[in-house]
Task: inverse folding
DNA sequence: CGGGTACTGTACCATTCGGTCCAGAAGATT
DNA sequence: AATCTTCTGGACCGAATGGTACAGTACCCG
């Protein structure tokens, strides 16, 4: 290994660039040309780094899940409270309606929408990602229950799934072009269901 | 006009077939070949019926909005109560997880996800569709308020948007591969927010 | 400095994409 | 039956798709 000429690109950056592209444009929507432009790689280097467009996509999606879950876990860990974590996450999703550039939404959701269940491998990645994110929300609910901001007799798994579903709903409204104010206001009824 | 050979296909059926295809596979995901197979038209007839793939897509999306809103309005009109209407709609969305075949979700949402905001015309159709569906939900909330199942002091517009957002969330969970039971259970916390 | 390794750019490939065109067949009207 | 209109199938188009092959070259190690 690694006898000879060393890599001239940063594999992590390249994977991230590929991920960003797939995230924004979806699988069918991103051409090889787009990927090359985004990564800065030549075609040969690209096919040496990833072995195909599909493989690149799989890796990108996996990378996305990884990044997302660790980021969320960290956020939950450093949050003042479970309740505040939940509210922050929901509001930040609503906040995507603010920035002028087109909202990317959640890549997992985008992928799930594009490949309904046509690709078995992709489906597996999606359900796995959803499961892991759900666990984080369940943990947040449990923490809020310990902190007595959510009633202890509620089912944390149910509420965790409810929150994930609500988050996806918010993101959908963002993509559909609703105004930031209208979307942010939805956080109130959403969180009312937790009480 | 209409002197000469008459149409051999039913324009309504053809538009519907095109809509189904775009609904399932999205815009990029549907090739001309797919459309021809679905509609049964020859290439010439297709380009005579619609003038381009884009035009067909616009018409299909418009047709979808039309169909959806009239169906929902009718459902609300014949429903026993506003509350029951809301519950039925949410549960039927959850029910899409039951059928073996891949869930199509809501075409408006699918389109909004595929074209974030890249196509101005499409964006307009999407926001317009969302607006119209929202109005139906708002009407349902108002009716439920009259029927005293939802408190009169709540903002019906807010709750209507909340319901649409929640519905989209449910559909997302369906697409992500969650089980029917898990999704149907979400209806409880969702509707709890209305109380 | 020489040899081997592995990256880089380009030319090339078959296929499919959306779309056009045209010759001809089929039906309605007279 | 003549004629006029309009639908139909297939040939054809340029461009872009994902992917491969190859020659050249930059780099590390001995």
Result:
């Amino acid at each position: 290994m690694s006898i000879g000429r060393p890599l001239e690109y940063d594999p992590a950056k390249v994977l991230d660039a590929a991920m960003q592209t797939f995230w924004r444009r979806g699988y069918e929507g991103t051409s090889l040309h787009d990927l090359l432009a985004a990564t800065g790689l030549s075609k040969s280097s690209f096919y040496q780094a990833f072995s195909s467009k599909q493989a690149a996509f799989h890796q990108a999606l996996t990378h996305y899940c990884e990044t997302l879950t660790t980021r969320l876990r960290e956020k939950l860990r450093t949050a003042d409270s479970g309740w505040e974590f939940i509210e922050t996450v929901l509001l930040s999703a609503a906040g995507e309606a603010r920035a002028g550039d087109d909202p990317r939404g959640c890549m997992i959701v985008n992928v799930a929408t594009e490949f309904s269940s046509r690709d078995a491998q992709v489906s597996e990645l999606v359900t796995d990602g959803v499961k892991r994110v759900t666990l984080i929300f369940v943990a947040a609910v449990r923490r809020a229950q310990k902190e007595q901001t959510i009633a202890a007799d509620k089912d944390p798994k149910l509420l965790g799934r409810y929150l994930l579903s609500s988050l996806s709903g918010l993101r959908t409204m963002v993509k559909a072009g609703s105004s930031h104010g209208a979307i942010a206001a939805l956080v109130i009824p959403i969180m009312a269901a937790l009480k």
Summary: Residues 3 and 79 of chain B are 46 Å apart (CA to CA). Chain B touches chain A through 48 residues (CB under 8 Å). Residues 2-6, 8, 31-33, 43-44, 47, 52-53 of chain B lie near DNA strand C (CB under 10 Å from a C1'). Chain B has ten helices and no strands.
